[in-house]
Amino acid sequence: MNIEEMGDDESFDEGEDEMDSYITMNVGEKKFLTKDEGVQKELLVEGHGFEQPEKGDEVFVHYVGTLTDGTKFDSSRDRDGHFSFKLGVGQVIKGWDVGVATMKKGEKCNLVCTSDYAYGTNGSPPTIPANATLNFEVELFQWKSIKDICGDGGIIKTVTTKGDGYKKPTEVDEVIVTYKATMADGSIKEEESVTFAVSSPVICPGVKEILKTMLKDESATCVIKDEYSGEAGGAITLDITLVGIITVEKIESDGSVSKKTLKEGSGWNRPNEGAKVGVRLTGYLPDGTKFEETPEGELTRWVTDEEQQIPGLDKAIMKMKEEEKALITIAAKHAFGDREMKKPLATIPPNTDISYEIELVELEKAKETYSMKPEEKIEYCESMKAAGNALFKLAKKERALKKYTKALGALDSDNDFSDEQKDKAKAFKAVLHGNSAAVQLKLNQYKEAKQSCNKALEVDGGNVKCLFRRAQASAALNDNEEAEVDIKKLLETDPNNREARELLKTVKAKVKAQYKKDKAVFGNMFAKGDLYKEEPAIAKKAEDMDSFLGDDADDDQDGDEAGDGDMAASHGHSHGGAPCDGNHGDHEHKAEE
Q: Is position 73 annotated as part of the catalytic site?
């Protein structure tokens, strides 16, 4: 009896009753492998490691098959060599495809398969009766991983030596391989330890797809055909070993800054923002000319994210591990741009891409806020606020906003603060949210500015600056009624505030212009006859509008078209765009103290 012979009414089907193939068992333990209890497994000898064969793999086993009364009907141990089959594709009875998929290398188990998972209602005369439940002692020796890589039969890969680790090359990486290729015409090409980019493979296009499935030190035999071979109507047989992976990482998503690892670093530590780093570096022009180099016995040092280095290099160093050595390639826009830059060994022309070979020798990470004590968090907020204000004065708005955001992040949790520290944190939050809103207005981030003002006003509801900034943001978003409410509240505190009154006039002009536009549209509808009954509502809207405009309603009868222009002028005014001091009636360009 051959285990490959299946009953007449049986065909392979990946049943819905199958459970997860990865299970944990102890020796002597029994478990059902299917929900309908059609396959039961008893572990006899534990296997090695954690890996299990997958669908399509060629597995090598020994087995002994018996009926429930103990009668042996078949045994591979009575023949020379192991029994092999392709797992999960219907070459054997269903019970085997289910059971062997749960085994590890060196494992021995007993599989009990009901007739639904064996030879069904017909049996396999003369040795196996109809509707027979069968027992199989199975030992798994090894397997070859056979993959249809692209799912269309164009590349069939058989793993001959398993690789190490978990990393597989990506399309941007470089690889070191040894290969032997038998071409369609019978000629042979082979190379030892050749290096190339995965995106530019040797031999044929299919090599790229193969490499993306391999681990370091893995060897495989692949049959490549169709469009993957590049051979007209021919197939290539490729024996390939992945000797090494040279990791290439896109620091910028468009690849304008990239990092190629030349020597792996140690541990997991990487510089964070504000870290102190010491490196050895050599800078190169595109033709290989050196333009700078760290002197022998010294280190080039800087603090990250403090504009002490060009942006591309600063960002790349924060992706490196201690002791890592890498080649950093930087496009001109992330280096020196359109400036000519004189360096110790050569001058960098404008708009020149450059590269650095760099080794991270020393690293002192900046303390993360979550590990700070309350008093350290207060000091940190003070320093971040001051840094943000200084950056704003230099018109570095995005960087200023980043400092305010980092300061606020330190105050996310104040559970361990004393009452005095909580009061300080509360005051900081009002100032920082207010300053953030000022920057966001300058960046035309009106929704964000409004949200920042909301948070500031939750802490200090009478903050005149934040009321004005929220009114500006609301007006820019055409939330004019909300803008008017904030301005009127502000004027209750500071009735002589000229900028607030100007903004109020601008908001009113915009509302009047919109009202006239609406009235013209709806008026045309009313002219069509009794079909439209909205005229009373429009009249009521006019009355409400007069009330909304107040005593100044007739001040700008000739200025209805000025709304948008006035609003634009207001957005550029010093008041709304700069972090201000504590004087609620004075809106100068100066950072909040």
A: yes
